[in-house]
Structure formats: structure tokens, C-alpha cells
Amino acid sequence: MPSPSQVPSARPAAPGDRFEQPTLDGMLADPLQLDLRHTTFVVLDLETTGGAPDGAGITEIGAVKVRGGEELGSFGTLVNPGVPIPPFITVLTGITTAMTIEAPPIEAVLPSLLEFLSGAVLVAHNAPYDTGFLKAACAAHGYRWPNPRVVDTVALARRVLLRDEVPNNKLGTLAAYFRVGDQPNHRAMDDARATVGVLHALIARLGGHKVHTLGDTIEFVKAVAPVQRAKKHLAENLPHAPGVYLFRAADDRPLYVGTSNDIATRVRSYFTAAERRARIKEMLGAAVRVDAVECAHALEAQVRELRLIAVHAPPYNRRSKHPERVQWLKLTAEAFPRLSVVRQLTADGAAYLGPFAGRATAQAAVDAIHEALPLRQCTPRLSARKASPACALAELGKCPAPCQLSISVEEYDAQAAAPLRAAFDGDPDAVVDPLLARIRKLSDAQRYEDAAAVRDRLAAFLRAAVRMQRLSALTSIEELIAARRTERNAWEIAIVRRGRLAAAATAEPGVHPRRTLDVLRPTAETVLAAPGPTPAATPEETERILDWLERPETRLVEATSGWASPARGAARWKMLLQAGR
Fold first, then answer.
1. DSSP symbol at 477
2. Helix (H) or strand (E) holding 141
3. Count of CB atoms within 10 A of residue 473's CB?
4. How many CB atoms are located within 10 Å of the residue 574 CB?
5. Is the pTM of this model over 0.90?
6. Which residues pair with 152 in a beta bridge?
7. CB contact at 8 A, 368 and 458
8. 484: which residues sit within 8 A by CB, 6+ positions away?
9. Mean pLDDT of the chain
10. Which among 483, 499, 480, 494 has a CA at the least distance from the CA of 541?
11. Which of 117, 123, 39, 29 is nearest to 73 (CA)?
């Protein structure tokens, strides 16, 4: 053992020793992807006074640095805990108060210890105990804890060894089972060397579990479901590129579709302890293959994901599965127009508002409009020349009674239909102002629940108007080309036609983006005109494109017409919507 005042490592590093991680192709390798034989470990053990970690209490430190089965250096010292060592600790460890009197305090040891730990993976037996004391000491004395990756040999043994192999996972039991040369004796350096032997024996067992890297090891000791471990091979040989991935069943059906900027890394995460969703684990049980579709950049990947989900409706995707189920409000094209909730947009001269996610939200917007404007609520088609039987609303004065010809076609249009058309694609004040007045009146009368109901109906209408006007601003443009510069000085290029992504590419660094665009443009999808605010794509696809276009770093290259929103459009009421939430 070193003398009480000895702080440096017991075996200094030799001139040829290198503690840095190996490199691949001249670049620093990802530590998690390194094979375990190339990983540098510092195996550490502490002896303490037995109290709680409070920044003191450490009496001895032993640490051994190893890589590839070879010892690179060691660090050992007694530490003055600043308090008498309890007798039962002395009986257990053999360390007395007299032995630590001349030893350095922990604040003097920490700089050298932290330097010794730098760039290595920390290993300890029951690691939370040892790291807890070191973290507390760093916090108490103003040192930054380096937060190294940690491997706990207790947790690793629980995963590797069967219950009938060892009665427990104590260090002495494991060292005896693996016939380690250095047996533990409750002294820090001896226990650290015993832990080195146990670590190497456990690593030898990991090969049978197809665990070869540090990242695999860290995930292996976590609570990974058996199905995740059994299907982990599905994540192999996937590209580190943006794109879409599809988990497929034995009959080739897509079970789940996802997207990522790094397909390989994202798919690998499904087989780690971080994935806790029960439905995903169920999906993994049925999956037999993962297909990858590489894309030019993240926007194309997001769009392809939406399209694949819409086509295949994978059972384990919850969102975007049924874009055809959206609802629209239709103001009919007839002498006395009325509102109708429909699923299809047609070129029939009617005005539309939407899309709505469901019928309940669409009906809330209908109720808001009926409360604000004198629009008829009956469903028969009315004649401008012949009277029809009146309904109860007309008798109660809640309707201008066009059925009784009490109002002319021109007056009805001026009072109800024209303001509503303007509210759909321009200024929504004709609906907003009457409802705000109604909310104030109900609030003044302390009818707060009724006021909240009116507020919710107004919000349903406004959200749809904001969304549709935002979509229409882009879908009205026959072609728009935009580019976004990435952090690595490449240019992501998108050709958008009537709100649909028609083509995508990336101009690599050193390649002029115009040359890439000239090659891309002739291959872009032809998109024909169609009725409605979303003529060529689903609302979700156009919204993904809008989000990408509105990013500060995106640049507009060309457009066949101006991209603009109404000056007095629904978007100016966004603050009201936020306040309502």
C-alpha cells in the first residue's frame, strides 16, 4: 500500500502508454460504438466512514486504469476524512484514525483523481455508492463532476449470471466464482483489482449475448424486455442518413412507419431500455424486418412518412392514419346558402372552411357561425320565388325566414352569406365580434359556464380559419422553390407545387445549389390544379412544408406568384386563441 501522504498513481504511466480512446479513420471514435477491447476503463473502489455521502467520509481510494486486458496505470491513497473512524469500520477495513492523520484531505486528492478519470469509463462494484461519495465531494469543494459513463459490475452480473451459478452478487462471491487472482479484503486498491478481474470475466460472458460495444453493454444492464433483446438484430445494417423506416411483419405488411435524421440510430433506440411503450414492444414481437428509405433531407423524410402511413394505415401508428376522415364546413351555392358538414371538396362554387379533425369540432364551428350570423339552419333547398313552410326558429324570430320570402336573396347574401365567405378566406370579424360581445355579456351576468361554451365554439371556428388561410397562402402558388443551408454548409432544396412536395435534393458542400436544382427540376412531380385550400396534398403534408419554409434559415429561390396572407385575416386573432387556452 502507498504511504498515507502518497497521492500520485502507484505505477506511473510508461512513455508509450496512451490513455486516449482509439481513433477510426483519423477521427475520434464514438465511445459508445467502440468495441470493449478498445475501451479504457478506470475501475474504482472507495473505503468510507460508513455515513451518508455529504462531501466527506472517504478514507481510502483505489483505482486501476485498464484497456484490452492490460493495466495502464493505478491510483491509490489514504484520505483524511476529517472525523474519527468508527471502531466497526476499523474492524472491517483495518484502517484506523491514526493511519489517516497525515493523509491528504479529499479536496487535495480530487484534482489528481479527476485527471486520472478523464476520458475513461468508470467501473465500480455497486457504482451508485462510490459515485455518490465522489459527486458529493466535488460539490462540497467546488469541483465539476465530469459525469463519466458508468458500468456497475453488480448490475452487469445480475444480467450475465444465472441464479443457480452464484448465491449472490457480492464482490467476494464473484471473485471466488471467477477465480480472480486478487481477492477483495475491504481495502480500496485490493478491492479495485478484484473488481478488474470480475469485470474481465463478465465481459467474456457478454459475447454470448452479442454485446460487443460499450453502448451495448450500458443498454444490456438496463431493464430491456426479452423481445427487444431477441429482435435487436433488426437494427443492423441500416444507414446513418435521413429517411423513413418501416417495421414489417412476416407477410410483408408495414406494422409501423417512422422517420429520423439518422435511421440507424433511431431504429436502434427501439431495442433499448429507453423504449417503454407497451404497443411498440408488442409491435417488435411481430416484426421480422426493418426497411429503410433514404431521403435527401428531413423534410422529404417527413413527407414520405405521412404518405406511407396514409397508404398503408400501419396498425401501430396512431397519427396521420386516415387523412380522408377530416371534415369541412361547406357554405352551399344556392339562392339562400346554408352550412353543411362534408368530407369531400368539389368544384361546385361553394365556400369551404377546414379542415377539422372530427365532426364534433366542425359542429362547434357551425354553432359559432349560427350564433353570430343570421344564417338559416334548415336543410331543404329553398326557392327564391315560392314560399315554403316555416320552422320553429322562424316563428321564434331566430331566423330571417327566407323560406317565407321574408328576406330577398340580395339582403340574405349581404347580411349572412357574404360576411361568412369573407370570414372564411379573409376578415373573420363578422363572426368574432358578435361572439366576443356575447361572451362579455354572459361574463357580466356571471354566467361563466355559458361564456366558456361560447368561447370554445369561437375557438373552434378561429382555429380552422387560421389554419385554412395559412394553407391557402401556399397552395395557391403553382410552384415555389426554397433552399435551406445546413450546419455542414450543404443546401437542402425543395420544389413545392400547390402545397405538395414535388421534389427534394441536397447540394453537397462545394457543389453550387443552382446546378443541383437544374438537374432536379425536370424530375419533379407534375401537380395538377384541384378545388379547395388543399388541392394536391393532405393538410398535414402542406403544414410540414410550411414549418420548413418558415424557418429563419430557409431562403426562397423562386415562386410563380406571391406568397401572402390576408392583411386582416384570421391570423391576427392568434393571441385570442392563446389566451383561450
1. -
2. helix 127-141
3. 19
4. 12
5. no
6. 124
7. yes
8. 297, 491, 492, 548, 551, 553, 554, 555
9. 88
10. 499
11. 117
Closest to 368 measured CA to CA, from 439, 461, 448: 461
Which set of grid coordinates corresponds to residue 436?
A: 366576443
Q: What number of other Cβ atoms are within 10 A of residue 493's Cβ? A: 24
Report the alpha-carbon distance of residue 76 to residue 192 in Å, rounded.
10
Helical pair 359-372 and 448-475, crossing angle rounded to 10 deg = 110
pLDDT surpassing 50 at residue 19: no
How far apart CA 351 and CA 332 sit, in angstroms, is: 7
Contacts of 488 (CB under 8 A, 6+ apart): 509
Q: Is 502 helix (H, G, I), strand (E, B) or coil?
A: strand
34 Cβ contact list (under 8 Å, min separation 6): 21, 22, 213, 214
280: Cβ contacts below 8 Å, ≥ 6 apart: 256, 270, 316
SS3 assignment, position 472: helix
d(CA 478, CA 531): 13
Q: For 194-235, what is each residue's pLDDT tens digit? A: 999 999 999 999 888 778 888 888 878 876 777 887 888 899
For residue 417, give the C-alpha cell.
352569406
C-alpha R_g of the chain = 35
The three cell numbers of residue 111 are 484534482
CA distance 179 to 186: 18
| DSSP structural state of residue 104 | P
- Whether the predicted pLDDT of 125 surpasses 70: yes
Task: Please determine, for residue 385, whether its predicted confidence score (pLDDT) is greater than 90.
Answer: no
Asked whether the beta carbons of 64 and 193 are under 8 A apart, the reply is: yes
Instruction: Compute the distance between CA of residue 81 and CA of residue 97 in angstroms, rounded to an integer.
Output: 9
One-letter identity of residue 576? L
Tens digits of per-residue pLDDT, 465-483?
999 999 999 999 999 999 9
The separation between CA 345 and the C-alpha centre of its own chain, rounded to angstroms, equals 34
Q: In this structure, what is the dihedral angle of CA atoms 423, 424, 427, 432, given to the nearest 10 degrees?
A: 50
Parallel, antiparallel or unpaired: strands 58-67 and 40-48: antiparallel
